[in-house]
Task: structure prediction
Amino acid sequence: MPSSARPDIASAAAPHMKSGQKIVLRPGRTGGALGFRKMFTDQACRSEVIFAEAGAFVYAGRSVGPHEA
Result:
């Protein structure tokens, strides 16, 4: 998601999250997990949600040979 969509998505998700659920933002690199946490706190979400972000697309890779990645 683009960072401009995060407030709307966090606001929509916060009331539905349960403790132990995880939100992983990809790509991260912009403090998005911290921003999501703040938005959930601002929405008074009491669930203990785990926030994370990846530094790059986790499914991106490069083939260097027929049996190598």
Q: What stands out?
A: Residues 3-53 form one domain. The first strand starts at residue 22 and ends at 25. The chain is about 30% helix and 10% strand. Helices lie at 6-13, 32-42.
